[in-house]
Amino acid sequence: MKDRITRRGFVGAVGAAGGFGLVSKLGAADTESVKEPDEGLLVVGVSCSPRKGMTTAVAVKAALEAAEAVDRRISVKLIDLGGMSISGWAGGARPGETEPVADDFEGLLPTLRAPRLGGLIIGSPVYFRSMSSLCKAFLERLSVLRQPDLVLADTPVGALAVGAYRNGGQELVIEQIHVAMLCHEAMIVGGKPRAHQGATLWNAYDDDITKDEFGMDTARKLGARVAEAALAIAAPRRQTPQ
Predict the structure, then answer these.
(1) Quick count: other Cβ atoms within 10 Å of Cβ 224?
(2) Residues near 73 by beta carbon (within 8 Å), at least 6 away in sequence
(3) Rounded Cα–Cα distance for residues 112 and 212 (Å)
(4) Strand, coil or helix: what is 108?
(5) What does the pLDDT average to over 210-229?
(6) Predicted TM-score of the model (pTM)
(7) Mean pLDDT lowest for which of 92-106, 145-159, 182-196?
(8) Where in the chain are the domains?
(9) Which residues on neighbouring strands pair with residue 43, listed in sequence order?
(10) E strand or H helix at 29, and its extent?
(11) Pairwise CA distance, residues 182 & 174, whole Å
(12) Burial letters for 176-201: b for 16+ Cβ neighbours within 10 Å, e otherwise?
């Protein structure tokens, strides 16, 4: 499985390289076209809300900022799906064939297939106690990363959800994201205390999610945990005798 082997070899090299400076790719809540740095581990956050730059994107950005603060070998990138056109899986493609639907998802594939990808944070708003249709479409389209190889295997993945109530279905959405990513043999991680399953945020302040101090704390703890898991996976490979 070429992609898996390439990624594992890259992560091992990261561990052996020790410390070095990285340029963060975290800026405005949007997909960035600036060239990514060639070193270190990349943690990507995906905001699956149709509302570009709003509460879910802000929460994912907070998680990424916490991930970046863990170690200078971590760089981050935010992908905001708001305003993008992403259709659900249409089927019909065999392993190795071209993606059957031409839309904005194809532009995300270089980042998702990057050998230096060390972790993912996927966030969704809660709609009727379920993930957004945009999140479902994104997860369905990730199926191209399972064929012919499991590109995301062993990649730490954390989930984040924003609801209209404190107990508004956030944990249900987190579980739905986890289950989908288990199909990739991804490594599911939660946050630190108060965020063991993932980050749960409450949009109770007229779209200013930063006022939900409890929720923002869970987002930051989730981001830190994903970064720590990415580095922990790199360490044993660094120590493996050549």
Answers:
(1) 22
(2) 14, 17, 19, 20, 22, 39, 40, 41, 231
(3) 30
(4) helix
(5) 97
(6) 0.82
(7) 92-106
(8) 2-12+22-88+114-231
(9) 76, 119
(10) none
(11) 12
(12) bbbebbeebebbbbbbeeebebbbbb
Token pair for 235: 């360490």
Q: Which CATH number fits domain 2-12+22-88+114-231: 3.40.50.1820, 3.50.50.60, 3.40.50.1580, 3.40.50.360?
A: 3.40.50.360
Mean pLDDT of 145-161: 94
How far, in Å, CA of 55 to CA of 107, rounded? 24
* Residues in CB range of 62: below 8 A, 6 or more apart: 210, 216, 219, 220, 223
Distance, CA of 140 to CA of 144 (rounded, Å): 9
Measured CA to CA in angstroms, residue 85 lies from 104, 138, 147, 161 at distances of 6, 10, 23, 21
Q: Is 69 exposed, middle or buried (0-12, 13-18, 19+ CB in 10 A)?
A: middle
Structure tokens belonging to residue 188: 């599911």
- Backbone phi, psi, residue 119, to 5°: -170, 160
Which stretches within 71-211 are classed as H helix? 109-112, 133-141, 170-182
Peptide bond into 100 cis (omega under 30): no
Which positions ≥6 away from 15 have C-beta within 8 Å? 231, 234, 235, 237, 238, 239
DSSP H or E run through 165: none
CA 163 to mean position of chain CA atoms:
19
